[in-house]
Amino acid sequence: MVKCYPTTYLMAGVMSEWVNYRKKGVYFCNVTVNKKMLYRICVGMLLLVVFSFASKAQQLSFRHLGIAEGMPSNVIGHACFDSTGFIWMATNDGLISYDGTRITQFLKETHPGLPRNEIGFLFCDSRNRIWICTNEGLALMNEKRRISRVIIHDSLKNANIDFCFEVEGMGMVASSTKKTYWLPEGKTQWQSLHWFDNDIRKGAGITSLRKFNGTSFMFVMDNNAMLINFANKKILTNVLVENLSSICKLNDNEVLATSDESFVLTRINTATNSIVKKYEDVKDVDGVSIIAPVFASSKAANGIIYLATRSGGLIGFDSKKELFYTYRHDALNSNSISSDILRWVFCRNDGYIIITSTSGLNYTDVLTNTFYQ
């Protein structure tokens, strides 16, 4: 006869246990187990708990903004947050804002300050103004949300403005296809940024940029991953990366460059101007190979680098543990990402991230996995 103990019998120090379910309760039954076998069982159970927790901790639920939610279009190119938490979206159907409940559309027909309805790039400055870049010129939406045309030079009224950004304590910078312009802090006249064009760009186009700190910015120029300090007018880092698509900050000493041909990440030390490590032929935590090229990247408040791919959904990269997490579209899950074909990804310091695509905008909070109310 097998001797059974009540459930109050503790596992600690017990060499052999068996769970026997009875109608009136659960009993531990004394069965001899080899020490080595018990050790393996315990280690296996511990690993199962750890990996289950890690997988759960990396789950993300997304909300979407598209035609179904009242957007004029599902195709969203660029986007940004303002200081009040509004999301601003660049579309081919004008400028769109979302305050958590209401979607507002700004069109050239109703806001003549817009150069055109097809918008390429957005930037929110320290005064909570929205800079609007198009291929027919630049516009500015002020704090009162009035839009006016920005004239850099008379000859550049209709120029293709690709990017616009703010250098702390120095003013605004705007770049066209081949030239760069600077609006000094407190001034109204734009100036040509000769040192940047002559010594750094040298005729190269800028295809991506990210802020590194107040006065330093990361650029993709052709296949050069560059870190430029505008205060000192110096190149801090310049590393050649094959098929370079985007660059983002890992930490104070490293940046991460991505590839536009296949899934290849290049870890660069900005102090030594050298490649630390390449990640290629990688698999995610579920053992699935990651092959899709990356369009854009950004570091979130949880320390994870989020990579928007061209066909493989959103990839989360834990650079400390060197683990990869994949978020794909699932037609049966309304909280999955809206598409596997993504564009830009933007992360805010409070945990919110937004991802643009041709199937609408996705947003979530990576710290609490909750949403705007």
Beta-strand content estimate = 35-45%
The major β-sheet equals: 4 strands, antiparallel
Class based on secondary structure composition and strand pairing = mainly beta
In DSSP terms (H or I, runs of 4 or more residues), the helix count works out at 2
Query: Radius of gyration over alpha carbons?
Result: 26 Å
Which parts are unreliable, with pLDDT below 50 for 5 consecutive residues or more?
1-33, 47-57
| Gap from first CA to last CA | 61 Å
Multimeric state: single chain
Mean pLDDT: 87
Question: Can you count the beta strands?
Answer: 31
Strand order across the largest sheet:
4-31-30-29
The shape, in one word, is globular
Share in helix = under 10%
Task: Write up this protein.
It is a single chain. The protein is 8% helix and 44% strand. By secondary structure, the protein is mainly beta. The protein is globular.
